[in-house]
Every structure is written in C-alpha cells, then in structure tokens.
Amino acid sequence: MAGILVRMENVVTAPALTPERIAVVIPALNEALRIRDVVEGALRHCPNVIVIDDGSDDGTATALAGLPVTVLRHARRMGKGAGLRDGFAEALRRGFDAVIAMDGDGQHSGDDIPRLLATGNRFRGWIVIGARLRKRANQPRHRRLANRFGDWGIAWGTGYQVADSQSGQRLYPADVCRLGCSGMPGEDFVFEAQILMSAAQQLGTRCVSVPIEARYNQVHGAPDFRPSHFRPLRDLWRITSHIVLQCVRRGGLWEVHKRVRQHPPVIDDPSGEFAGVQARPQAR
Known about the structure:
alpha/beta, Spore Coat Polysaccharide Biosynthesis Protein SpsA, Chain A
C-alpha cells in the first residue's frame, strides 16, 4: 500500500505529546479473560488508564483490582460509542491533550502506544490509526475483505482514503474528543466511523495510519481471545448505510468521488515498508 508525502507550512508550537499528557481509554464488555493483561500492557507505557465497563456481568471490573486505573461503570450495556464518549469526557475533565483508545479483548498491544505517540507528534492535530498492516495475512480473510469495504465507505464520508479505518486502536487529539462528546450522532461501532467523518467535515482533521501487527486468536493461541463483538455483515451494513445516507443528503457525489481519488491513505512508516515515501507534515 503506497503512502504519500505531505508538507505543511506552520511550525509546531504546542507541547509534545508524552505519556503523562495523554490518557489510554479502554471500553470493555465482558473482558474478564484479557482485561488485566491489556491494562497492565497499557500501564507500561502510560500512567493514565481509564476503563469503561459497559455493564459487564463476568467480573471485568473485579479483574482490575489493585491496579492504578480509573474504572467507570455503566449499569447496563450502552455500546462502544457510549463507552468512548464517557472515556473522552473523563480525559478532558482531567486536562489531557489526547486519548489513545484500545479495545479490551487483547487484540491491541500496549507496546504500540509509543508508535502512535511518535506519529501523533509528527502529525500534530491528526487522528492516528494503528493500521493492522504488519502480518496482515494472519487476519481472517472475511475480516480483511470487510475492512476493505469499510475503508471504501469511510472514504466517502471523510473525502480522503484511510488505511484500516476499522481499527479501534487510535490516537484522538483533544479537539476531536470534544467533538465526540458534543452530541455527535452515531452509536456503538458507528461512533468510530462517525467521529472520523465529523472531524473531517467540521474540523478539517485528517487521519494518518501507523503500521501495527494484526493479532488474532488462531495465530496467537492461548490465552484465547473471546469472540469479537464486531459482526462484519451486521455492523458494516450499519456503518455503510449511515455513511451513504449522509453523503446523499450532502450531495455533490461526483465531487466527493474525485476528492477521494486525489487523496490516498497517509501512512507514517519511516522504515518505508508500507509507505512509498515518509510523510513529514509539521502542523495545521
């Protein structure tokens, strides 16, 4: 997958993102099997971890006993979107400059946090996506096809292409977190699609992807990952129909199509394995 070179004129003036200036937000629904490992992995790279227990009934919160984390609990299941919103709101209340979101099932590694932070400092104000490009052959074929379809749909909503738009491991700048807490539409997994579109349309925010490794049960073995809450057919239909309806309402579909084709994915990969050239923007 080719990347593109992006240059910008302004100089970065905001303080650098550091582990102390960000929070890791982890929505969790019945994740007792892996949540402690996930949180301990995040704590190795960031002292500020916020877990949102979305009405779990398997002892997810109990599994975190003794760890220096903030746990917010929903009395009933409210969906991933609500979990992210509440995590964003808590991070903003505590004055953090950005949030790194991770899933609680173990498919995201805390060891990728430094990569997202480094890219976040090179691309200040951008959303950073941990794109599952390394060892992508490990990804089940149906998930790979579903993700490509999702990338196509997201591009129509943002006006630019995104590498692995379905990944839940992302760095969100504070202004994007505020947007997510402002009554933006979209629930459950649709929220993650909507926040990319709303940030592009309302804030002019772009996405940059940093390659991470795809982690799946049949490859990594015990302890097993629990079955994903994401259902490709059901949830991609919800996401795509949500996007298409918005695009039709806005109109100008031919212009959107041309803009999407002119803006391929931006991939920050100094090794050059995935990017044709290394992107080097300064700031907005």
